[in-house]
Amino acid sequence: MAQSGINLERLAKVWALAEGGKQGEADAARQRAAAIVEPYGYVLDDIPSLLADAGFGDDLPQPGPGGLRFYDMGNPAHMRAYQREHDARRRRWMRDNADRIAEVIARYGSEEAVFAPTAEEKTLDAAIEPFRDPGEDGCATSFDGENFSPSERVVAAMGQAIPWPDTIPAALAEYEAWDRLCDDRNVADGNNQYDYLSNGADKRRWHLCDMVEKLIPARDLSDVIVRLRFQLDGQGSRDSPQAVLDDLERLQAAGFGASETRESPGLSPAADIPGNESDKVGNPHVWAGPNLDTPPSFKLNTAGQRRAEVKRILATQEGRSMSLREIAARAGVSPSTVLNIRRRMAA
User: Fold this and answer.
1) Which H helix or E strand runs over 106?
2) Which of 57, 153, 167, 326 has CA atoms 20 to 30 A from the CA of 95?
3) How far apart are CA 211 and CA 206, in angstroms?
4) Which region ranges are annotated with the description Disordered (predicted)?
5) Residues 16-39, mean pLDDT to the nearest whole number
6) 45 has pLDDT over 80
7) 316: Cβ–Cβ under 8 A, 6 or more apart, which residues?
8) Mean pLDDT throughout 166-176?
9) What is the per-residue burial (b if ≥16 Cβ within 10 Å, else e) of 74-89?
10) Where are the domains of the chain?
């Protein structure tokens, strides 16, 4: 908002009367002050910040011993100026997002309904209440010795009240539902950015985050992708590469490959992928070729076994002279797979 057109010297004089004059005089001064700033998009509560920023009055922030910090708790004048600016930003946000605020309130039916505890919040609060730690007023509320993530006993209690999801997508869906509730309440509250969930719901969301990030074993590559995307979306706050590696190693050991996972959204196992027809099934391979080494005793039922057989063939003199399709037919893979393996071996 532009403030260059405001006569700040006149505003400072009027505001001094508004704050220090007698009742009738002060009321009249406040009306005059409002008339000065409202054409520029400001309200009465913005005036102290405007004057402080321009150097009027004793609320101008002054550097402390260590310099002027973002929030200088040792400088009362700076704290007052910071709070006024925060309040002014919030009011501007509410004006700019009036439609969004109205939409949230209309969806819930009323502003009171937005903040009313949900049935799930009440259930979870009751479940963790026996674990509340005694503490002095003003201290952060802790449960079973934990301020943030729940202890194992609290996790078990919440799971008895509301069963925990057993898959990564289901845990993510519940986590996002709690996030939406928190975001709706933040919007209705004018972007104050508080923690708007109850104690039980907040503990629940903490553990759901851990479940998606690292605790629930991935069932297939689709789950691994969901987990990795969730970690990346956290921008460093949910960084557990070991969980992803554990998933991939476990799936590989179980014989899962990209073509062997269960059906994922948008991709059917029977999709027509050129060149991959033989890689979709564990067809018995054909052992042939006079100069090839004796084939291993196992059947090639997994992607890892079939790729190992491609490497074995390519390591022989006869195999190096065979075409991609010949090797692919013997190992039960696609020609493109043979080509990729040959390139990696050559490198």
Assistant:
1) helix 98-108
2) 57
3) 9
4) 256-279
5) 82
6) no
7) 291, 292, 293
8) 96
9) ebebbebbbebbeebe
10) 8-96, 277-346
